[in-house]
Amino acid sequence: MSENATKKIVLTGGGSAGHVTPNIALIPALKKAGYEIYYIGSYTGIEKKLIEDYNIPYFGIATGKLRRYFDPKNFSDPFRVLKGFTEAVKLLKKIKPDIVFSKGGFVSVPVVRAAGILKIPYIVHESDMTPGLANKLSMSGAKKICCNFPETMRLLPAEKAILTGTPIREELGMGSAEEGKKLCGFTDDKPVLMVIGGSLGAQSVNETVRYALPRLLPNFNIVHICGKEKMDNLKLTVPGYKQFEYVKAELKDIFAMADIVVSRAGANSICELLALKKPNILIPLSTKSSRGDQMLNARSFEQQGFSLVIDNDDLDEDILVETIEDLFERRDIFIDNMSKSNLHSATNTIVKLIEEEIQK
């Protein structure tokens, strides 16, 4: 393409926030690089709501989940995927993008398959240690496959795999600890423990933290982002303990004031902790309630010296309190290890890959 031509990119990905937030993190850098940005997601998925704030054209397509287990919808969803593919072909013909960037999730499969048919190059990003099914179905035609973990590289085609890390929203690093303390009503100088369990919360983590409050509050102020409808109304007035169902703009200030963090081990969440250099304890979802990707993510971060890990099945008040105390004592070691990571410039790395691909 000529240097003066308008550059166009389609972002796709959805089904969960984790398949959308890295795309959102790329938007400012892509705009700065001169791209017209379009988003293709599902008609009603979380991606539609999340993208609304960013003033970029959004297009919905039909989507169906690709399951490895029996479900009556397995008989109807292939037709929805086929319809989504047809819709994606029409949209890409209309938009005429130079490239597609896919963050995965089932809505992305029809989009990248349509891009492949139309000879539009596409790049895929895999957040977890082991590729999810949607990305597995997308990899054969991808020009590059970005990933977060060194261990993932051996599971990908060597000529396509790039260890980039995950794009992190720039504003997360621009918070104010003072604003965070005002928001939470913390007035003393005790260190701050942040507990976050993902957008839906983490019931086992929430309960254990609350059992442990009498042992933790003498030494820490605690801010607890506990998930929708997971507030404990009996503890709304406990000094030094502040609960939120969820936060948006305030998250940057809460991160800024947090000395240590207890978190689930979703790939985007832990990459945010790495980027912000927050010493952390990861409590991954077990294989009873997930495909096990959080356990693999957590173990990788533990081996790299970024995190301590508590298995969800082992979680109790004693283990939680002891691990928090251990982490706080050794927090400088974890900060130093995270500072040495080379995965802090994921946004720039990925935008550079996109630029290189459209100039071929």
Topology:
Elements: E1 7-12, H1 21-32, E2 35-42, H2 46-51, E3 58-61, H3 77-95, E4 99-102, H4 108-117, E5 122-126, H5 133-138, E6 144-147, E7 161-163, H6 177-184, E8 192-196, H7 203-216, E9 221-225, E10 241-244, H8 251-257, E11 260-263, H9 267-276, E12 280-282, H10 293-303, E13 307-309, H11 317-329, H12 331-339, H13 346-358
Parallel strand pairs: 1-2, 1-4, 2-3, 4-5, 5-6, 6-7, 8-9, 8-11, 9-10, 11-12, 12-13
Helix pairs in contact: 1-13, 3-4, 6-8, 7-11
Description:
With 360 residues, this protein is an alpha/beta fold. It has helices at residues 21-32, 46-51, 77-95, 108-117, 133-138, 177-184, 203-216, 251-257, 267-276, 293-303, 317-329, 331-339, 346-358, and strands at 7-12, 35-42, 58-61, 99-102, 122-126, 144-147, 161-163, 192-196, 221-225, 241-244, 260-263, 280-282, 307-309. It has a seven-stranded parallel beta sheet, with helices on both faces. The chain is elongated and about 60 Å long. The chain starts with 6 loop residues before the first strand and ends with a helix.
Task: Give the key terms.
UDP-N-acetyl-D-glucosamine:N-acetylmuramoyl-L-alanyl-D-glutamyl-meso-2,6-diaminopimelyl-D-alanyl-D-alanine-diphosphoundecaprenol 4-beta-N-acetylglucosaminlytransferase activity, 13 helices, Rossmann fold, 6-stranded parallel β-sheet, UDP-N-acetylglucosamine--N-acetylmuramyl-(pentapeptide) pyrophosphoryl-undecaprenol N-acetylglucosamine transferase, cell membrane, peptidoglycan synthesis, 2 domains, GlcNAc_MurG, alpha/beta, 360 residues
